[in-house]
Amino acid sequence: VAEAFGAQRSLNDRARNAPLFYGIYGACVIAGAATVLASHSFVHVAITVEIVNALLLPVVIGFLVALAWTTLPQPYKLRVHERLALAIIVAGVGTIGLSWAALTIL
User: Fold this and answer.
1) DSSP, res 17
2) Which one of 32, 49, 79, 98 counts the least CB within 10 Å of its CB?
């Protein structure tokens, strides 16, 4: 978020040099701690975190695949057979995950 505003944005910078970054970082830590402490069950929080992780992971993998296909420098660009293998693996893992989720829910 600090990067979007053009502000200093690194843990290597001192808090005095990157106040927006450290302010956002501290607010996230405090919000996370408050969420955990306000919960009635730590197990429920852990399960919810894992469900959110499972839902967001395919989106992140999709963005990484898109980046690998479009923005890598020429020496590192994926060749045709590497793209095919990557697409098959991502589709296979996604299918297994969705099937497992459907079987678990039903």
Assistant:
1) T
2) 79
41 in Cβ contact with 35 (< 8 Å): no
What is the three-state SS of 33-99?
HHHHHHCCCHHHHHHHHHHHHHHHHHHHHHHHHHHHHHCCCHHHCCCHHHHHHHHHHHHHHHHHHHH
Q: Which helix (H) or strand (E) holds 29?
A: helix 19-38
CA distances in angstroms from 104 to 63, 99, 100, listed in the order given: 27, 8, 6
Residue 102: enclosing H or E segment and its boundaries?
A: helix 80-105
Q: Under DSSP, is residue 8 helix (H, G, I), strand (E, B) or coil?
A: coil
Residue of 18, 15, 14 lying closest to 5 (CA atoms): 18
Planar angle of CA 49, 95, 65, nearest 5 degrees: 75
In the numeric block, which tokens belong to residue 42? 């730590």
